[in-house]
Amino acid sequence: MKAKDIDKTFDEGGDISAHLDVTRARRPEQEQKRVNVDFPLWMIQQLDKEARRLGVPRQAIIKVWVAERLEKTG
Length: 74
Fold this sequence. Notes:
By secondary structure, this protein is an all-alpha fold. It has one domain (3-27, 36-73). It is built from 3 helices and no strands. It has helices at 3-11, 41-54, 58-73. It is elongated and about 60 Å long. The N and C termini lie far apart (42 Å).
């Protein structure tokens, strides 16, 4: 299928997923990199308490809170 045909199908709300190679797809600025951070025990206890209250993993709390702070300062 030619690019113009894919564009037309997409613009008309059609499914073009069969024509895409998503194995090499990237989300700009969304690549992950593992980092190690040491927290005092009292912080970990508070993080775990909040994570249990919300029913999410500790890592999710940390990511959301850091993202919120960065957006405010951004």
